[in-house]
Structure formats: structure tokens, C-alpha cells
Design goal:
alpha+beta, 7-stranded mixed beta sheet, 23 strands, elongated, disordered N terminus, binds zinc ion
Length: 515
Amino acid sequence: MKRVLVAAVVLVGVMASTAAAQDVKAVISNASKAMGVDGLNSIHYYGTAQNGNLGQNNNANQPWPLTPANDYVRAIDFAQTALRGTWQTYAVPVTGGAATLQAGQQNINAQSPWAQLLEIYITPWGFLKAAATNEAAMRSQTLDGKRYNVLTVTGSAKSPSGQPYRVVGYINRDTNLVERVQTWLDHEFFGDMLIEADYLHYRDAANGLKFPARIVQRRAGWPTFEMYVLGANPNPANLQQLLAPPAGRGGGAPAAAPAGGRGAADGRGAAPAAAPAAGGRGQGGAPAPAAAPNSEKLAEGVFRINGAYNALAVEMADHVVLFEPGPQNLQRARAVITETKRIFPNKPIRYGVISHHHLDHTQGLAEVVAEGITIVTPAVNRNYLVSAMSAPRTLAPDALAKSGRKPQVEGFVGDRRVFQDSTRTFEIHVIRALPHADGLVIGWLPKEKLLVYADMFNLPTDATGPVPNPPVVGTQVFAANMERLNLDAERIMSVHNLNPDRLTSRAELLKSLGR
Ligand SMILES: [Zn+2]
């Protein structure tokens, strides 16, 4: 009796999965017909767009800043797996002054990493093509009163953990149109980062092609790309021309532009830039040039940990405080921690004060959390950091995932946090009224008259050069705050290397303002 029951259960299971497979096939086929994807080998669409700068919001609890991407043109060849997008950005540089025109581009081909290729597979057409040729599972879900067939497609691209990347598409059960596509990408700061694109207000093009008039792509919760699509062409006759980068600009090599509309092709973007133009940019976490020492003693028990982004290690009676413990990436954070431990082998690093929440200053924080270091930052940044450092990290398990630690983030209230014991005083002050970021702090060693800061100004390379006109807003705010706090800074250490690399002073800073 028992054996018969087992057999019956197995049989039902087989029947159910066969029926499900037929359902999945029918859903994909119906959607492909409705969207005009049968016979669609390539597509060209155009309109006006905006790029969002991931992790560079001016307040940790607000959307990523958007910059215009006008004259946005995109071509995708589904048969050859290729994509090219171009746009024009007209925006004010982060230092202020007149707006400048910048050309942006994005080039993806079959050899590109998944982080870029996903841009093809999260389009509604690319998703359906992937669903038709890969393993797909289906469930139904109701969102905002609309019923969806939700397909999870697993392809051959694998994450560092060996887990395949998944793409999930929401097909409206009434219209058979793809209205949302999701995937998850490993990210050093955000962990398994949700990338989600909404496709709204479908319109008709030639040959039965349907295209969304509105596209919104979000990463880690806020839009990184938005577009109003004005028109679309299936199988454009000039496809090769649309896909070819202009001569002399890289000859078809994938552009530097990160996938997903994260800034202009030159990597600088036009949104509030992460870094001043001079020094330290684009080194991608590579260690300082071989000749440079790993650290440099600035005062008794006070060391600059050298790199493209510098950190400051401050010795207290029974522990060490690090200012800017996790910039750039995990590798850089590890290097900062290792060097600090080498200098102070007998004292634990207890606190890590971040200058501000921007991604280029926090992307390595998972290493800091894994080390058991408490992150110290104004309360405004706390939830953002806790949420990122608590996210699942299954696609690329890092030191934090392996440590199993929960993030310790002290979000201090008010304008200051002072580290003080019998040996030293190290003051952390919140900068007021800074456009660049809320909750940005400086570190001040009153006895040593040494100040550490990030991102507020960029001194001219030649101190005798002309005073910037209009003056750099960040420099003015920095000067006003030093005045307010009465900080007589004889030496100022910049997190970003100055050009030429040096410590500066309050006097030099004021001089750059013509004072
Ligand atoms: Zn910044």
C-alpha cells in the first residue's frame, strides 16, 4: 500500500512538471507574439534619458543624482550579442562654473562581463529571447492589482560563488507584455544588489514591435537610468553603423563606461563627482606607485596610510582610530587595515571614521566590518550603511560574508564626536551647509594642529596660479567651517592625493580663494 502511494505521488509530480513546462513555453510564446519579438534580430531606439550616479547621492537617504543624457541612441544586436549606446551630457562640473558638453557611450559585446551583458538581457525583448533558450521556471504574482506570470530564467553566466545569475521577468497576464525585469549582481558595497527595470506605456512600432515609452532602471533602490523612448525600429538596415564606435575612439573595444548608465564614458560623469579632478582618480584601488612608502609618520602615533585614497591612523592609549578605513574597494580597505596593524601590532583598531557615505569612500567597508571595527559616522548615514553591510552576499562571498558579523555602526547625534583619553584628543566635526554631501566630517588633532578632510576642495596645482573664478564652493564652505570651529590647521591631510602630492595648510587653502 505504502509503495503504491509513493509511486502515485511521483507520477503526479512528473505530470505537474510537464504541464508547467508547457505553460512556460506558452507564456513565452504568447509574450513574444504580443511584443513582436519573433523575427526580431536587432533593435534601435532613441529618446531622452538621465543617468543616475550609484552611491553618490548628496544625502544617504535620497535618490542617486541624475544627469541628463540627451540625444540617447541605443542599438542592440541580439543575434551577435552586442549593444551600443550614445548620449550627450550638458552639465555643470562638480567644482562649479560653466556647464560643459560631454559625449557618453556604452559598448557591450559577447565577451563583456555579465555586469555589462545584463543590460541586454534585462530589456523586455532580450529577456524573452533568453527565456526561450534557457531554463525557465514560472510562478504567478499580483502587483498593484495586476496579475503577472513571473518567469525566472537561469542562464550559463556564473557569479564568483559559482551560483548562476538569474533574470526574472514579469509578464502581464492580460496584455502579455513584459513590464518588469530584475536581476541580482554582486557588488562590493551593496552585496547581492537588485537591479530592476520597469517598462511602461507600451507603443507600436513597425512589424508588430512593441516598445515601452518609459524605462526606469533602479539599482540598490534608486533610479540609475531613466528614459523616454521616442521611437524604435526593429531590425534596422544600418545596424552595423549603429553598433560601430567612431574611428579613433577605441576601435570597438568595450568603452570605459560602466553598464547601466552610471556616468559618462570617460568615467568622470557629470554628477557630483566622487573625486576632485586632480590626483587619485582612476587608479582603481591599485596600490601607490612602487617607490612610495605604505605609510608616513606625521606626528607621534599619527600615520598617513598612503594610497590613491589616503587614510589616517591615530593611536590612542589602548586602541587605534582609523579615519577613512574603507575607501575605493575591498582590496584597498584590506591594505589600509594591514598597514595599520603593522604600525601598531599591539593595539586593536577599534573605530573607523568615514569622511562621508559616497561609494568611492565606502566601497571597501565590508572588510572593515569583517574586522570587527565599529564604523563611526553622523546619524544621517547610519541606516544606509547598516542596510548595505547587512545585505546578503551570496553571489560573491567576501570576508564579511565569511565572518558572519553584524555591522557595528555608531551614528552619532549632533555636530561632533570626540575620541579622548589620557594620551590624546581626536575631534570629529560635521561640516555644515556643504552641497557635496550631508554628514561629511573632518578629523582634527588639536595638539598636533593637524586636520584631515575629503572632497571639499581641490587646490590648484600651482599655488601661484590664478584664483578660481567663480571660487570653488566646497573650498568656501571648508574655510567657513574652519573659521566657525576656530581650527588653526598648520597641516591639512587630504584623503585624495593633491597634485603635487603634499600636506597643505589653512593658509594655502585661503590663498586659493584669494584671501
Ligand atoms: Zn564625495
